[in-house]
Amino acid sequence: MIRVLVADDHAAVRTGLVLILGGAPDIEVVGEATDGEKAVAMARELEPDVVVMDVRMPRMDGIAATEALRGHSDVLILTTFDVDEYVFGALRAGAAGFLLKNSDAEALIDAVRVVARGDGLISPAVTRRLIARFAERPEPEPLPDLDVLTPREREVFAALGRGESNAEIATGLGMAEATVKTHVSRVLTKLGLRSRVQAAILARESENRPSP
């Protein structure tokens, strides 16, 4: 059973999320938080598998809450299409997934399952916006030196950029899923990244820009 904490300051939205997620046979909503500060406190107390986190909340926003929970709970950020700055913040904070608020119930449930099993998730629309915004920067930050990766790690890195799960990578590269997890961990460490979502964005951006 996947244990989920829902954090949103709007009661109607929170109720809707609880109803949707609670209706899934493999998901249990263990708590509701009305702001980021409560989300952090409740996550540390209840130890959910996934925190479904709104961004704009009082007392502590979802970005600060995500940062506070880094290494403790996996966070699925609910974002709106037109607020890219928050997505950047959540990306830097190490969020495990990003989903648009207008996504349907099935997409939300699937996203929680993806994050719970340790895979990253990012809405294709958000990915396109992120890459576009990175490209628009007057002085783009240099890409990490990808030569630090072994050939196998480069293959895993590329697969992350395609949005593949650990299971899909394992099948495609003919290795055990546990081995994939090890490679993903090494890729993140070598490139100084906090999450596989960051790796996916970097992999896609690296296709459009040469490494230094």
From TrEMBL:
The modification 4-aspartylphosphate is found at residue 54. Keywords: DNA-binding, Phosphoprotein, Transcription, Transcription regulation. GO terms for molecular function: DNA binding. The keyword Lyase does not apply. It comes from the Bacteria. GO terms for biological process: phosphorelay signal transduction system; regulation of DNA-templated transcription. Pfam families: GerE, Response_reg. Residues 3-116 form the Response regulatory domain. Residues 142-207 form the HTH luxR-type domain. PANTHER family: TRANSCRIPTIONAL REGULATORY PROTEIN NARL-RELATED (PTHR43214:SF24), TWO-COMPONENT RESPONSE REGULATOR (PTHR43214). This is DNA-binding response regulator.
